[in-house]
Amino acid sequence: xxxxxxxxxxxxxxxxxxxxxxxxxxxxxxxxxxxxxxxxxxxxxxxxxxxxxxxxxxxxxxxxxxxxxxxxxxxxxxxxxxxxxxxxxxxxxxxxxxxxxxxxxxxxxxxxxxxxxxxxxxxxxxxxxxxxxxxxxxxxxxxxxxxxxxxxxxxxxxxxxxxxxxxxxxxxxxxxxxxxxxxxxxxxxxxxxxxxxxxxxxxxxxxxxxxxxxxxxxxxxxxxxxxxxxxxxxxxxxxxxxxxxxxxxxxxxxxxxxxxxxxxxxxxxxxxxxxxxxxxxxxxxxxxxxxxxxxxxxxxxxxxxxxxxxxxxxxxxxxxxxxxxxxxxxxxxxxxxxxxxx
Length: 342
Known about the structure:
A two-stranded parallel ribbon has the order 1-2. The model is unreliable at 1-36 (pLDDT under 50). Helix 11 packs antiparallel against helix 12 (293-320). Helices cover 70% and strands 3% of the residues. By secondary structure, it is mainly alpha-helical.
């Protein structure tokens, strides 16, 4: 399991070494249209592995999926046409929008990058079922710890929801790009290295003074939970990583790296579910038309299996080590992207 980070690197590197477009995808530079031929099962498998491994690791799943979509040639913005030559639309031309919104491979890929999170959601639901039951017990008035944890999750959840709704169009238009991902990867690495140093200094000082005590997510105050929620807002920028920002925020709020990661996992359930449902409602029909249900379902299943393995490994790793490894990985990935895609 200690090689789990290398799996995503290998998946991307293997594509870099043989980036040949799928034969059923029209990619000639001389052609002005593409036929909507769907997603291959190999593409779905690669995307599922990348999503599952990176979703809860602090290395940005969205950033990895944007890079992978680019390398698989799934982010082409040429309007798609049906096999009979009819244009495909997300929003057909109408009096209020004469030009309409044409369906493109990039739109389908960007939607799938969010919807495929359903697999990771399923994995965490299974792994942390007992914690979820504790929350339900708290809502029924039978568990004070459960109701406090629920309160903290709600407080941490809403800032990103509000920011996402307000900034969605701007983010989709300007930030879903490889260059944004590279910048965010490096900036996130610097932040993680500083927080890792800060936490180790804090733990050392607490141990020497005999005051070391591990804070539990249910014991956090409302301001501490709100701080984590505000940190999560920065993850709306692709390449930043929701997991990274919530783990860093939890660290700064007083949680150990492992406890911060576990709070991040549970916080991800409403956050990722809301994002997947909203994106699916917006563009799900268009995505299904391009990719098809079998490939979408298969990708989510692969994501669930790889996410379960990644989550178990991450908690074990953070119990013994800090965040530095992930910071180094982010820098190496950014350098590789710059080198191969310049």
